[in-house]
């Protein structure tokens, strides 16, 4: 899979012939310096963007063959996200943020399922709060609850501790890995924190848009 | 339903956080302004109509040469209308030694239904308004009648076989008419005395009138029903038929009012578009996240449409309510100036307000909202990614369509609408071009001054497209503000000047050819300039293109009535200065070999006449026919003798003619005029001062309405400025935080902001002045037939007010940005 973009300076290759296989239940870390192409790779894998060439298969579906709505359905059914900057919807309460992915796939018990996950992340008492009334750590716990609530096959996490202090970050990572283990979700974690990467089953190094150690892929 | 819940949740939340405030407030102000304008102009327009109704003494007048069927009054009563009867006839009346022909009017109770009679206790005494009519046995005689009879109040007057006592001098009756034939001096009597006069005999020329007045819609409906029931010889007149002068003045008043309403619509749309742009850009992250979580495009679209619909209904309803309250306050303020209680407004403004809300939001906000659905989900990771820019054809097409829809409702005149739309597009293109030019120019000069100046100018040129849009928006608001102030005043002045103070206020008619020089000498002897005497020949149109009138198809009853009416023909070799040929050619100085006719344009339109049509007249028993070779427009409100039908010279001369003239009588010349009537008893003098003051009254009311409406438009214009500033608030917060973090003083940032907005204001002011000048010229020349001159005040006002309003508003509106602690801003980025 490759990704090129055009810029005023000409064509720019962000991902260059990347070939990667992630197995069910596996956790892999994608590491590399800023601008190496980690986040672009994650976007391709999650169907948030389209590669210039190549294919992406997610849970036996070739998402590169789907249109935008098709990919949205695939994401709703199979994918969970945790972002560096939390990305909670400010107009919805913590509970409503967690309920949203369930509602998008038409779940009839969104309320109950969301409450159960909120309990797991220890935020039941804050369920009625809006994001702006939550601390950074609390926001990320809500985001984790939202990511796991649909029991996704794959969880994509982009620098999940990037906006948190080290103590809170550690707690969040513990929570993420605990839930991941409990639900048997495949985890793709983008980070430049080597210690965090070491907690994953496998680490992929990216440099200038290429996987440095193809054997690991 | 998820989409409804999400729409409601987002709206409620955005409302609480203030995100929605600008957009909703923009629509609210827009609808409120338009609704207030519409409510108020509706009421003013009704007041103007009521005043025009005075000329009929009613809203509808049914006339017949025979007694009217009783059905009409029953039908009118059933329709909830007021009714009054008048029987009018020409008869010679006697008082002492004097005798003269009078227009004897026997009045029933309730007369007049519109307007009031004015009477005085004696000749040349102060007049007063009365609600009464002459009691049985009494008569009220007009000044002219008393002058001719050499009588005064207290005298006995013989009307047919009845002897009545003159108890009052009649100085004004609202329906004395503007038709030249309707000028025999009036004598009012009570209808109870009619029988005893024995004036109604077989063969006598009597006009029976039934007057109707009431609620506008009821009158409208009743008119339609009544037209179905009319018998032979029965004619229905409403205010549109009363006379070209009033209808010309009303047209102009209506145009001024429409102009002010249109300006509000324009400003409303600009404010909404800018606020919607910001709102959409603020929602991109949320939409990207929802799509990332699996929301389909359809859901995003449904949420957007529901949100817009909810906003339309909420802001539309509140706007209408606010508009109603605002106009109520406005009407209260002007109650003394209007003189009478303003009629209650109709329902049209309510629907107009709601329709405007939906239409403006659909045209100006919906395309952007729909574009939200195309936000790429990758935006959650890469914040610089957004939906593809909207195609110009879509965004401008939708905006144009919605504007045209609202404008069509407000204007209701396709020609004016197209011209306004065209003018707006050209103005927009010029403004946009100039906006771009400014951005390019600034790049070169920004290094030449201090840091604040450079920061301010850099802001304009770096924001490229946004700067150009702001200049366009500011320019447009300023342009309409200038249009409503300086240009409006210019137009008003031009308009008023077209009716100079010494415009003719007396018409002399029925002057026999052998009296012309005598009358001229008499008036010159009393200090007047030599008069122009215009010949007039009475005739009746019999056929058009050899088709007798009775066999010809007419567009409506009014047209048929016009054609059948006695025609006043005249001839001239040169075209009068208050006439203008619009189609065909005037014969010029060379007398054509065969007769030709020039017809007034509206008269021609009414009768569906074409150039080349041959009109056939019965003139004193002889048949005379000639082709139409030109159509003319006539400035009826010049109050000079003018004619619908003018012949080329050498045709009408052999026929018996009388002459007509007009002049300006100064105050205190009434005695001279009485002398003139005594010396030439057959001449009729028409006092058009009263008609003039009626027309002026209409003008003043229209001017007042437009001035009041200007307040709303000013407010709407300021909303546009605020919406534009609000649209760049996030960028400003960020830049101010960076600058202050780097050590810039608050004052330096403030100076930068002042520079930025003052320069934008200056350019917008210049553009506005040129646009307003062009619009003023266009309106004056093509819409109001007035000559417009370049006005330097307009340019000075444009530049200075542009700089001041935009600069000050910019500083005030961005002050909160400067007060925001840089650290909290940077943390949120």
Query: CATH superfamily assignment of chain A?
Result: P-loop containing nucleotide triphosphate hydrolases
CATH architecture tag of chain A: 3-Layer(aba) Sandwich
Give me the Rg of chain A, rounded: 17 Å
Contiguous low-pLDDT stretches of chain A (5 residues minimum) are: none
How is the quaternary structure best described?
heterodimer
- Helix percentage of chain A: 25-40%
Give the domain tally of chain A: 1
Largest interchain contact: A-B, 30 and 26 residues
- Shape by Cα distribution of chain A: globular
Summarize the model shown:
The complex is a heterodimer of chains A (217) and B (829). Chain A is of the alpha/beta class. Chain A has helices spanning 38-45, 68-78, 94-104, 110-120, 136-148, 166-183, 194-197; strands at 3-7, 10-15, 27-31, 57-58, 61-62, 79-82, 154-158, 186-190, 202-207, 210-211.
Description:
The complex is a heterodimer of chains A (217) and B (829). With 217 residues, chain A is α/β, with parallel strands linked by helices. Chain A has one domain: P-loop containing nucleotide triphosphate hydrolases (Rossmann fold). Chain A contains 7 helices and 10 strands. Chain A has helices at 38-45, 68-78, 94-104, 110-120, 136-148, 166-183, 194-197, and strands at residues 3-7, 10-15, 27-31, 57-58, 61-62, 79-82, 154-158, 186-190, 202-207, 210-211. In chain A, the strands form 3 sheets. A 6-stranded mixed β-sheet of chain A has the order 6-7-8-3-9-10. In chain A, strands 1-2 form a two-stranded antiparallel sheet. In chain A, helix 3 crosses helix 4 and helix 3 runs parallel beside helix 5. The two termini of chain A are 13 Å apart. Chain B is an alpha+beta fold. Chain B has 4 domains: 1-55 and 243-412, no CATH class; 59-228, no CATH class; 425-499 and 688-829, no CATH class; 506-687, no CATH class. Chain B is built from 23 helices and 22 strands. In chain B, the strands form 2 sheets. Chain B has a 6-stranded mixed barrel with strand order 2-3-9-6-8-7. The longest helix of chain B is centred in the first third of the chain and has 49 residues, at 244-292. Classes of the chains: A alpha/beta (217), B alpha+beta (829). The interface between A and B is medium-sized, with 30 and 26 residues.
């Amino acid at each position: 899979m490759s990704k090129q973009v055009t810029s005023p300076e000409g064509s720019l290759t962000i991902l260059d012939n990347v070939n990667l296989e992630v197995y069910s239940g596996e956790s892999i870390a994608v590491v590399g310096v800023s601008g190496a192409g980690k986040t672009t790779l994650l976007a391709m894998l999650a169907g948030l963007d389209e590669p210039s060439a190549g294919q992406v298969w997610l849970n036996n579906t070739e998402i590169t063959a789907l249109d935008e709505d098709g990919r949205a359905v695939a994401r709703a059914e199979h994918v969970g996200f945790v972002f560096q900057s939390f990305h909670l919807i400010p107009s919805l309460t913590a509970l409503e943020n967690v309920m949203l992915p369930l509602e998008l796939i038409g779940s009839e018990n969104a309320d109950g399922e969301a409450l159960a996950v909120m309990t797991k992340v220890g935020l039941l008492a804050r369920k009625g709060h809006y994001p702006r009334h939550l601390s950074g750590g609390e926001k990320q716990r809500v985001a984790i609850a939202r990511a796991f609530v649909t029991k996704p096959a794959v969880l994509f996490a982009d620098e999940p501790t990037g906006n948190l202090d080290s103590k809170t970050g550690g707690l969040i990572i513990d929570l993420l890995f605990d839930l991941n283990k409990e639900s048997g979700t495949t985890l793709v974690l983008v980070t430049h924190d080597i210690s965090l990467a070491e907690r994953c089953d496998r680490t992929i190094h990216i440099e200038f848009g290429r996987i440095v150690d193809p054997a690991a892929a | 339903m998820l989409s409804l819940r999400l729409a409601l949740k987002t709206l409620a939340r955005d409302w609480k956080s203030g995100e929605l405030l600008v957009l909703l407030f923009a629509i609210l102000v827009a609808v409120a302004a338009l609704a207030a304008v519409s409510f108020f102009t509706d009421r003013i327009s009704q007041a103007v109509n009521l005043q025009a109704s005075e000329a009929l003494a009613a809203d509808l007048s049914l006339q017949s040469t025979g007694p009217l069927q009783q059905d009409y009054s029953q039908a009118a009563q059933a329709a909830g209308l007021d009714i009054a009867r008048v029987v009018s006839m020409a008869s010679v009346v006697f008082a002492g030694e004097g005798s003269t022909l009078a227009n004897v009017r026997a009045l029933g109770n309730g007369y007049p239904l519109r307007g009031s009679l004015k009477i005085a206790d004696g000749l040349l005494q102060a007049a007063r308004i009365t609600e009464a009519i002459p009691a049985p046995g009494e008569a009220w005689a007009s000044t002219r009648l008393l002058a001719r009879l050499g009588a005064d109040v207290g005298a006995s007057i013989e009307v047919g076989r009845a002897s009545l006592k003159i108890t009052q001098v009649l100085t004004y009756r609202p329906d004395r008419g503007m038709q030249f034939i309707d000028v025999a001096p009036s004598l009012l009597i009570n209808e109870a005395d009619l029988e005893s006069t024995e004036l109604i005999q077989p063969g006598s020329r009597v006009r029976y009138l039934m007057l109707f007045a009431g609620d506008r819609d009821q009158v409208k409906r009743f008119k339609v029903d009544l037209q179905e029931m009319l018998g032979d010889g029965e004619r229905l007149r409403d205010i549109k038929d009363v006379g070209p002068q009033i209808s010309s003045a009303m047209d102009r008043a209506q145009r001024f009012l429409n102009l002010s309403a249109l300006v509000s619509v324009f400003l409303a749309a600009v404010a909404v578009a800018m606020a919607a742009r910001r709102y959409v850009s603020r929602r991109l992250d949320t939409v990207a996240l929802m799509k990332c979580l699996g929301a389909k495009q359809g859901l995003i679209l449904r949420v957007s449409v529901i949100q817009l619909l909810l906003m339309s209904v909420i802001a539309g309803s509140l706007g209408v309510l606010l508009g109603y309250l605002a106009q109520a306050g406005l009407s209260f303020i002007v109650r003394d100036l209007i003189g009478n209680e303003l009629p209650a407004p109709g329902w049209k403004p309510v629907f107009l307000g709601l329709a405007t809300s939906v239409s403006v939001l659909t045209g100006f906000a919906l395309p952007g909202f729909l574009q939200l659905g195309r936000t790429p989900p990758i935006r959650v990771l890469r914040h610089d990614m957004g939906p593809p820019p909207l195609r110009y054809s879509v965004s401008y097409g939708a905006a144009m369509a919605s504007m045209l829809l609202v404008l069509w409702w407000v204007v209701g005149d396709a020609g004016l609408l197209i011209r306004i739309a065209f003018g707006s597009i050209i103005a927009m293109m010029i403004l946009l071009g100039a906006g771009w030019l400014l951005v390019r120019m600034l790049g070169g000069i920004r290094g030449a001054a201090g840091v604040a100046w450079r920061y301010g100018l850099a802001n304009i040129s770096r924001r490229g497209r946004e700067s150009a849009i702001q200049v366009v928006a500011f320019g447009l608001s300023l342009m309409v503000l200038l249009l409503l102030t300086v240009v409006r005043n210019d137009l008003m002045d031009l308009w008023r000047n077209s009716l100079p103070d010494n415009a003719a206020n007396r018409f002399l008619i029925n002057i026999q050819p052998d009296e012309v020089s005598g009358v001229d000498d008499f008036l010159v002897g009393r200090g007047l300039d030599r008069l122009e005497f215009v010949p007039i020949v009475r005739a009746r149109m019999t056929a058009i293109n050899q088709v007798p009138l009775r066999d010809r198809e007419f567009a409506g009853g009014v047209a048929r009535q016009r054609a059948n009416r006695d025609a006043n023909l005249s001839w001239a070799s040169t075209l009068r200065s208050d006439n203008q040929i619009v189609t065909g050619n005037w014969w010029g100085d060379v007398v054509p070999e065969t007769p030709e006719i020039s017809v007034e344009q509206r008269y021609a339109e009414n009768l569906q006449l074409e150039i080349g049509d041959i009109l056939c007249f019965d003139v004193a028993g002889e048949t005379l026919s000639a082709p139409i070779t030109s159509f003319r427009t006539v400035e009826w409100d010049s109050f000079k003798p003018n004619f619908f039908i003018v012949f080329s010279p050498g045709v009408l001369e052999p026929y018996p003619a009388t002459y007509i003239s007009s002049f300006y009588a100064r105050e205190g010349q009434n005695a001279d005029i009485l002398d003139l009537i005594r010396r030439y008893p057959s001449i009729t003098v028409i006092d058009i001062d009263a008609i003039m003051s009626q027309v002026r009254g209409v003008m003043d009311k229209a001017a007042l309405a437009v001035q009041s409406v200007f307040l709303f438009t000013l407010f709407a214009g300021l909303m546009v400025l605020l919406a534009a500033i609000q649209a760049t608030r996030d960028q400003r917060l960020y830049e101010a935080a960076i600058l202050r973090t780097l050590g810039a003083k608050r004052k330096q940032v403030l100076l930068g902001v002042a520079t930025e907005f003052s320069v934008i204001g200056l350019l917008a002011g210049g553009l506005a002045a040129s646009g307003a000048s062009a619009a003023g010229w266009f309106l004056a020349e093509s819409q109001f037939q007035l000559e417009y001159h370049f006005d330097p005040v307009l340019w000075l006002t444009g530049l200075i007010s542009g700089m001041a309003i935009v600069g000050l508003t910019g500083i005030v509106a961005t002050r909160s940005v400067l007060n925001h602690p840089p650290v909290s801003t940077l943390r949120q980025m």
